[in-house]
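Comment thread on ticket #2218

A.B. wrote:
> Attaching the input chain for the structure job we discussed in standup.
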Amino acid sequence: MISPSAKQFVQDVFQSLNREVWIITAATADQRGGLLATWVMQVSLDTERPCLIAGLAPNHFTTRLIKQSGKFAAHLLKDDQAELALSFAIGSGRDHDKLADVSVRQEPAGPPILIDCRAWLNCKVYARLVTGDRIYFWADVLEGDLITPRTPLLCEQQLILEANESQQNALRKNLQEDRDHLAPHQAMWRNQLPEELEFRPS
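C.D. wrote:
> Ran it. Output below, let me know if you need it in another format.
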């Protein structure tokens, strides 16, 4: 466990990062949803078979849709789309359809694709790893489009700055609820780490 004296320092380091924000969408035959994510990245240099990984909280509605469908779409946003991003960051798709007021292209048996965004990638999951407080989905990128290549990306620090006080409070509340709910699951996973994942210095 980290020492109390180092805890704030480490939090400050992580909070100084300015990662791009992604909207992840998914759908089943009768439900659809979306969430805001920052743990999304390219995981292969193979241009013939591009892949990415998305790390999502297991308790989120959209995560369940991905587990059921095996598909999702990942969208990068333009720097003037903070309000759109916040609408996917706050609240749960269990309570309301976050896509109701958003223009989307919906293919049969596919995830919703946001029409107005900087870029999108349509992905099919081929592997997953459950680590207690995150499920990591490895996915092949099947298709995509870079719609506005010269437009700056919306990143995490700008999103927080543009959120009003009520939105910032809601973001903090969501984060703390996730931490409280998922910390025991992450601790259990570490204590029961599968043998093939254990690290042994060679």
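A.B. wrote:
> Thanks. Noting for the ticket: The chain has one domain: 13-197.
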